[in-house]
Design goal:
alpha+beta, 5 strands, globular, five-stranded antiparallel beta sheet, 2 helices
Length: about 120
């Protein structure tokens, strides 16, 4: 198993901490690494390229080549999103949010268009 990470998109200036989770075939940047710890140097490089504060989404996958990702993997990502969110923060810190054990709640997912974080409900 390896880790696939995509660069999140922040389309809402009014919600700077909200980032959409693009599927691998639509992401501006992708990384495929052997170990979760290897995601952090990639994030560092992305910070230099795309800006200091960014969000990335990651998931464990069975893939050998980033250029030829299985169609099933892309379809599943489009349906469910990636379960691990990595947010870079000032000072070089990274906040990791792991949603793998969070039960899915109706209307809320990593792909929600409302900009709500996973695992919350509307009042």
């Amino acid at each position: 198993m390896r880790w696939l990470m995509s660069l999140g998109e922040r389309p809402r200036p009014d919600a700077p901490t909200y980032a959409e989770d693009p599927a691998p075939d639509q992401a501006r940047a992708l990384a495929l690494v052997d170990d979760f710890a290897h995601l952090f140097p990639v994030l560092q490089a992305w910070r230099q390229e795309y800006g200091q504060e960014l969000t990335a989404w990651a998931v464990q996958v069975e893939a050998d080549d980033i250029e030829n990702l299985p169609a099933e993997l892309i379809a599943q990502w489009e349906r469910e999103g990636a379960p691990v969110r990595l947010d870079t923060q000032r000072g070089g810190y990274v906040r990791v949010s792991d949603y793998r054990d969070v039960p899915v709640r109706a209307g809320i997912s990593t792909r929600t268009t409302a900009g709500l974080p996973l695992g919350t409900t509307t009042p």
